[in-house]
Design a protein that fits this description.
- The chain contains 7 helices and 16 strands.
- It is α/β, with parallel strands linked by helices.
- The site of flavin-adenine dinucleotide (FAD) has 37 residues, from α1, β3, β10, β14 and α5.
């Protein structure tokens, strides 16, 4: 008889896990509290430098050819050879859901799972996958493990702008902040809509002011006075993997629920897809115990590098980041990443 898997949450991690599990022979149920792709709060830049995920099957708006990034100086980095796309996440996730349904995944939308349901789901199904984002639903029971996400994380504030973004075509704009490890971004969706936001890295629970740097950044933009602000929303991104909690009995974590977003920039789409896909594969192969080690192995290159750069950024500030950007500008990102990977830094983790 087929093994059964229930996936909680139809974001990138849950959809990837459901799709891979069903393709590899599991009987899959996917429970989503909203409609797939509804009310997504994301910059929608799909940055997969380490080729961890498949190119989005749908929803690519354009390939990002340049990143205009400011630290002490401003650099225009050629990103045309990276896996970096601006995407429409709703379109992408709906396409993944369609593929999953074709693979006979039983998708139930508007179906919010409650912490109290977890015990009965774990009895009913062979495997339970928690891909509910941050804070992962299953980490709230039986004891509350919320603090596990608070080691390293990004706090963000983002808005959707209407205006003339025709001069930004094919490029992202990023400004590193002066006083803390953080940055502002402007990612155009098309010539008349853009997402602009701010993300600040923090350990523990100290408060940060996001409104001020975002306002300053917006005022610095060309045509600022003609922009209309359509929505403004905050959000948190966990950037400390919850390694010991990835597998608890027959319950598994993937994506943001597993704390897998980048410690360097907070992007988590690539790791959500990679972890979901890998988890679906391990479970379908009947090898659940292999998932934590396989995931560590798959992400180790990216995580090691990003932690090192992030650590230097926190300790040495903008001067370090400016030097790094200067070198990337001169020698290319691949060269620099390979060099940095060779050096060990005193990371007590
Ligand atoms: C402001 C902001 C900007 C960002 N910009 C970028 C970016 O440009 N690029 C990038 O790579 N990353 C970005 N990120 C991070 C990225 O959004 C996440 O890393 C990514 O969405 C993680 O995918 P996921 O599938 O793990 O979780 P999610 O995308 O959060 O999906 C979780 C799903 O579970 C569902 N769910 C939640 N609770 C329940 C429940 N109880 N029952 C059933 N379903 C439930 C939710 O409705 C949702 O569909 C950004 C994050 C923020 C906050």
């Amino acid at each position: 008889m087929k093994k059964t898997m229930v996936v909680l949450g139809a974001g990138p991690a849950g959809l990837s896990c459901a799709l891979e599990g069903a393709r590899k022979g599991l009987k899959v149920t996917l429970l989503e509290k909203k409609q797939v792709g509804d009310r997504i709060n994301c910059g929608e830049g799909f940055f997969d430098l380490f080729s961890l995920a498949e190119k989005p099957v749908s929803g690519i708006l354009y390939k990002v050819k340049y990143i205009i990034i400011s630290a002490l100086n401003t650099y225009t980095l050629d990103s045309s050879s990276f896996n970096l796309w601006m995407i429409d996440r709703q379109q992408w996730q709906k396409a993944l859901a369609e593929l999953a349904v074709k693979e006979k995944v039983n998708l139930l939308e508007n179906h919010a799972v409650k912490p109290i349901d977890v015990a009965s789901l774990s009895r009913q199904f062979d495997w339970v996958v928690d891909a509910t984002g941050v804070v992962g639903l299953t980490t709230k029971v039986p004891q509350n493990l919320r603090q596990a996400y608070q080691k390293d994380w990004w706090v963000t504030l983002q808005c959707l702008l209407q205006g003339d973004f025709s001069s930004y075509r094919d490029s992202f704009k990023v400004k590193l902040l002066q006083d803390c490890t953080g940055y502002c971004w402007l990612f155009p969706k098309d010539t008349s809509l853009a997402r602009a936001g701010v993300a600040v890295f923090k350990s523990g629970s100290k408060r940060v002011n996001l409104n001020e740097p975002l306002e300053i950044f917006l005022k610095e933009q060309q045509n600022y006075k003609t922009y209309t602000l359509l929505e403004k929303k905050g959000g948190r991104i966990p950037a400390a993997p919850l390694w010991p909690l990835l597998k608890r009995e027959n319950i598994f974590l993937a994506g943001d629920a597993a704390g897998l977003a980048s410690p360097l920039h907070g992007g988590g789409l690539d790791t959500a897809v990679a972890s979901g896909t890998l988890l679906g594969r391990c479970l379908a192969a009947g090898e659940p115990e292999t998932y934590p080690a396989a995931l560590r192995e798959a992400l180790s290159h990216k995580m090691n590098l990003e932690r090192k750069i992030s650590w230097c950024w926190q300790k040495l500030g903008l001067t370090f980041m400016d030097c790094l950007l200067k070198i990337i500008n001169l020698s290319g990102l691949t060269f620099l990443l390979n060099k940095m990977y060779d050096y060990e830094l005193p990371l007590n983790r």
